[in-house]
Design goal:
Number of helices: 16
Distance between the termini: 58 Å
Number of strands: 4
Largest sheet: 4 strands, mixed
Shape: elongated
Protein name: DNA-binding protein
Family: Belongs to the short-chain fatty acyl-CoA assimilation regulator (ScfR) family.
Pfam family, one: HTH_3
Order of helices and strands: HHHHEHHHEEEHHHHHHHHH
CATH architecture of one domain: Orthogonal Bundle
GO molecular function: DNA binding
Structural class: mainly alpha
Organism: Metallibacterium scheffleri
Oligomer: single chain
CATH superfamily of one domain: lambda repressor-like DNA-binding domains
CATH class of one domain: Mainly Alpha
Strand content: 5-15%
Length: 401
């Protein structure tokens, strides 16, 4: 229990802020003007900062002083990372903290709106060895059926995923090794996905999002592995799910000419919204290409275009999240809450909320008309918001095929 200082100081918030800002205790101590030992005591919960120190602390990490007195929401389940194994521990901690802040934003907004119901296939695997290739194909097909996507190319995967109740965040992280992470939130009763926007490649971004969807469906009840081989196994399964979901076996294979050439796959790339590399992997899974033929195509691809880039990579803009963005616009448009009051209500800096919700920079300091994206909840609702009434975010329905 804390002794002295501001009542109700939440030590866990300090750990979260250190991770989110990628600051060490020593660095923070210097910026706040206290000793490293004092920061250590704050973080351990053995002491709380005095009011003036709390104000300096809040200014340094760019949150409100009151935010440090809010009990943190229950942590998201340990995330799956779409990452290079070399990604630094501090980078992972930073992104976990950002995801927890996204959870805070979504929770604060959920006081006023109804999000779309979660609509994902349910799987109860507890061991990755239970998950066969056939199971992955079935899960991907079931997901498409639930979302009424048919068997053709998905036009906007971000829209479909948010329509299924997933909270999606896409922001620049500055961490090239990590392309995304996903986790289930017990506090929200729904999953979150955070995608990196550092690489402005719509094809790769779609595959990353489908990969995270695979984790959420297949691996919800599987403990995060510490062994390298176990981690690779889960990554391979999420990769296979992404391929099966984006490139359904029957329809995709019917469009592939044999013998398979890179030029033919480039034509299909634009139509299906999937990279040539991902299509080669899918054709190998479907046994349309054997291992030798697939490796030959990969070698030719590398020789012609390089290891990573492909022609047309800039032709497709990355798909953007809408749910949190439109929810905030709705609250402003319906006069539920003044624009400048939203950061105070959430407790985070306006800049962080803008990034997490995909709002334009400076949004909370602007005035003007906002386009309405949703309708008021009927007056018969059981839940009432004082003076304004609750609202609903009826997210646009997914594509019907």
């Amino acid at each position: 229990m804390s002794r002295g200082g501001v009542q109700g100081f939440q030590a866990e918030r300090l750990s979260q802020a250190l991770a989110a800002r990628r600051l060490s205790q020593l660095q923070l101590a210097g910026l706040v003007g206290v000793s490293p030992a004092t920061v250590s005591k704050w973080r351990a919960g053995n002491q709380a900062p005095e009011r003036d120190a709390l104000e300096r602390l809040a200014s340094v990490v760019n949150v409100t002083p009151e935010w440090f007195t809010r009990a943190p929401s229950s942590k998201v389940l340990l995330p799956f990372f779409r990452s290079n194994a070399s990604a630094h521990v501090a980078a992972r901690a930073m992104l976990e903290a950002r995801m927890e802040w996204a959870q805070d934003v979504a929770l604060a907004l959920s006081e006023f709106v109804d999000y779309p119901a979660v609509n994902l296939p349910v799987r109860t695997f507890v061991d990755p060895d239970q998950i066969t290739s056939d199971e992955i194909e079935v899960a991907a097909a079931e997901c498409r059926e639930l979302w009424r996507l048919g068997r053709t190319a998905v036009q906007d995967l971000a829209l479909a995923i948010e329509g299924a109740g997933v909270v999606l965040i896409r922001e620049e992280t500055g961490i090239s090794q990590i392309e995304g992470l996903s986790a289930w939130s017990e506090a929200l009763g729904r999953p979150l996905v955070l995608l990196s926007s550092d690489k402005d490649n719509g094809y790769r971004s779609r595959f990353d999002l489908a990969h995270e969807l695979g984790h959420l469906i297949l691996h919800r009840h599987i403990a995060r592995p510490t062994e390298r081989e176990r981690y690779k196994q889960l990554e391979v399964q999420a990769h296979r799910f992404a391929g099966a979901f984006l490139l359904p076996a029957e329809t995709f294979s019917s469009e592939v000419r044999t013998p398979v050439t890179l030029d033919d796959l480039l034509l299909l790339k634009w139509r299906w919204g999937v990279s040539v590399a991902a299509m080669v992997m899918r054709l190998r899974t479907l046994k349309i290409l054997d291992e030798d033929a697939a490796q030959l195509l990969f070698k030719r691809r590398s020789a012609r275009w390089g290891a990573k880039a492909e022609p047309g990579d800039g032709d497709r803009a990355p798909e953007q999240p809408r749910l949190l963005h439109r929810t905030i616009e709705l609250l402003v448009d319906e006069n539920v809450m003044p624009r400048e009051a939203i950061p105070r209500h959430i407790g985070l800096a306006a800049h962080d909320i803008e990034k997490l919700a995909g709002l334009p920079e400076g949004y909370f300091h602007k005035t003007g008309t906002v386009v309405q994206f949703a309708r008021l909840r009927p007056a018969s609702s059981d839940v009432v918001v004082p003076s304004a009434g609750n609202t609903v975010v009826p997210f646009p329905s997914t594509f019907k095929r």
